[in-house]
Amino acid sequence: MKIILASASPRRRELMRYITEDFEAVSMDCDETLPDNIEPIAASEYLAVLKARAAAEKYPDCIVIGCDTTVICGSEILGKPRDRAQCIADISKLSGRTHQVITGCCIIKAGKVSSFSEVTDVTFRELTQSETEAYADTDEPYDKAGGYGIQGLGSALISHIDGDFFNVVGLPVGRLFNELKNVGADITDRPTA
Questions:
Q1: Three-class SS of residue 125?
Q2: I need a labelling partner for 115 at 20 to 30 A (CA). Which of 47, 70, 79, 105 fits?
Q3: Of 109, 37, 99, 101, whose CA–CA distance to 66 is shortest?
Q4: Active-site residue among 68, 83, 139, 186?
Q5: How many Å apart are CA 132 and CA 113, to the nearest integer?
């Protein structure tokens, strides 16, 4: 069965190659409005299921994977910053604090839906205003939840993490590999040379 990754994210596509080279990445448009009463910790998995269901309608004979990543600081979801001011505000909220990065994943195979969330705690060091502004002046923050990329320049903002590094990038590789095997996906054991 062919594997479909319902994601436009180049980072997710790159990470998916650690699991298998045999997949197709597709961009899906669906309404990503969260219900008013949803707990922030459940938002990623909710959106991952929406994306997977939209892709499964288009690719019913495939194994479909939907994903979504949220950054939660306290009880607030920090999305992709719309401008420099929001980026500075969001990075300032994260400064000196631990926040959660949650990636929700949904796998649909032959109409059967399974989903999970992976949580990684990320701690930022205390940042100066000039460090925050310098980071906001790069192109890196603006297409990323929480306004930073752990795999790039944003790595200098972080003091430590507790959990899966790849989850913060956008795809919990190890957990997804195991979940795909559990649903009977035809993926070879990794690693390969």
A1: coil
A2: 79
A3: 109
A4: 68
A5: 41
162 is catalytic: no
d(Cα 22, Cα 14) in Å, to the nearest integer? 12
The residue type at 24 = E
* Start-to-end CA span in the chain (Å): 24
Any residues with CB less than 8 A from the CB of 43 and at least 6 apart, and which? 34, 68, 70, 77, 102, 104
Q: What are phi and psi of 51, to 5 degrees?
A: -65, -45
Closest by alpha carbon to 34, among 26, 48, 46, 20? 46
3-state secondary structure of 144: coil
pLDDT tens-digit map of 103-149: 999 999 999 999 999 999 999 999 999 999 999 999 999 999 999 99
